[in-house]
User: Which sequence fits this backbone?
């Protein structure tokens, strides 16, 4: 019996090494090359040797894949100019080398605000590169389970992917809890209410509402198994599929109960005993999805 | 008011060591986060163990000197370049990260 290793508690590098086949990871622009942010030092903020993202290739269940991981502990995984450019170059290379899949271990608060416009442009370039990879028929799989969640521009990037895997402790959204509270007031959203935050952005909610494809426990082996299963999960985008998605979201918004909590939304989806969901483990929640 | 300039402080140290590790791939441990640091070890020419620290916590040069001197007593490395990015780690955390890096060097 092997000991369960928490995905959330691993660093980006530890996640990568445990996700792929042993000793197959090859890094591009490794720390010793010192490709770092040109902006942070001017603001008195220390740089990271890898600018908070690790990119490279590896094998996954024997298949050649491209893998990248964002380090949430460095500036909340914020996407700066170099960080974004590394992700873009990595995905453009996928267009040339045609790996079996592109896997992004996302953990990010979105744009690194210190780098302002350079970070915003970087995130939009990441989106474009991701959609180019998808259009080339290479599946893009995003895995979310870090303590910082996946927010802002990276939340959009995640939802551009073919396949999204989340743990129940992972979070995925556009504006983060503190941003919503700051802009709309604590009556609208209390960012310190952790149960509320996870009901609204957490893996269970994303799974029950169809925003992620797979819900797993916070366990490295579960992430590896889900990543392997995701290798064959390419989903083509068409005008029809986009219009169907827009109709679904418009209906959901129109029918949302006034001032509703996530529990009311789950009830509306037809989830049995929705109030119990926060107490259930991932396997029990998997059995409840009706969307 | 401090009369110190804002920004990163860069500190450099050099020690003369005896133990030269064999050829090795660069080692990176730790993350640049609040109260934390990253330490990279790379092979270098010459007999020295050089250390460059970039830190957001200015004015602690003497403490860095003491922590690194203790580290060099534990691990008298030669031909190694140590590079550190620090975000206000305490001396104990710095010592542990340095030992972790040497451990990775010996048992990759």
Assistant:
């Amino acid at each position: 019996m092997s000991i369960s290793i928490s995905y959330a508690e691993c660093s980006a590098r530890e996640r990568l090494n445990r996700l792929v086949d042993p000793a197959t990871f090859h890094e591009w622009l490794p720390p010793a090359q010192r490709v770092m942010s040109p902006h942070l030092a001017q603001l008195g903020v220390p740089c990271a040797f890898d600018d908070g993202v690790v990119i490279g290739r590896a094998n996954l269940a024997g298949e050649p894949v491209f893998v990248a991981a964002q380090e949430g502990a460095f500036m909340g995984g914020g996407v700066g100019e170099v960080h974004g450019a590394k992700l873009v170059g990595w995905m453009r290379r996928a267009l040339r080398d045609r790996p079996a899949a592109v896997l992004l271990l996302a953990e990010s608060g979105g744009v690194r605000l210190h780098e302002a416009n350079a970070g915003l442009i970087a995130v939009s370039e990441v989106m474009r590169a991701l959609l180019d990879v998808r259009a080339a028929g290479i599946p893009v799989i995003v895995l979310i389970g870090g303590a910082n969640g996946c927010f802002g521009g990276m939340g959009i990037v995640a939802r551009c992917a073919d396949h999204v895997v989340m743990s129940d402790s992972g979070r995925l959204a556009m504006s983060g809890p503190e941003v919503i509270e700051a802009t709309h007031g604590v009556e609208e959203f209390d960012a310190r209410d952790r149960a509320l935050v996870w009901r609204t952005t957490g893996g269970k909610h994303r799974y029950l509402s169809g925003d992620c494809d797979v819900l797993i426990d916070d366990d490295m082996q579960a992430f590896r198994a889900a990543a392997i299963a995701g290798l064959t999960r390419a989903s083509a985008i068409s005008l029809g599929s986009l219009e169907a998605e827009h109709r679904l979201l418009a209906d959901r918004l129109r029918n949302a109960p006034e001032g509703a909590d996530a529990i009311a939304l789950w009830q509306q989806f037809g989830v049995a005993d929705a109030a119990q969901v926060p107490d259930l483990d991932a396997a029990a929640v998997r059995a409840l999805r009706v969307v | 008011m401090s009369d110190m300039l804002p920004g990163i402080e860069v500190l450099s140290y050099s020690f003369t060591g005896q133990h030269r590790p064999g050829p090795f791939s660069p080692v990176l441990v730790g993350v640049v986060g609040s109260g934390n640091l990253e330490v990279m070890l790379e092979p270098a020419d010459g007999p020295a163990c050089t250390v460059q620290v970039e830190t957001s916590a200015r004015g602690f040069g003497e403490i860095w000197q003491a922590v690194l001197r203790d580290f060099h007593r534990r691990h008298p490395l030669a031909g190694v370049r140590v590079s550190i990015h620090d975000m206000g780690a305490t001396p104990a955390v710095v010592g542990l990260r340095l030992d972790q890096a040497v451990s990775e060097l010996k048992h990759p």
In short: Chain A touches chain B at residues 11, 13, 30-32, 41-42, 44-50, 71, 73-75 (CB under 8 Å). Residues 116-135 of chain A form the longest helix (20 residues).
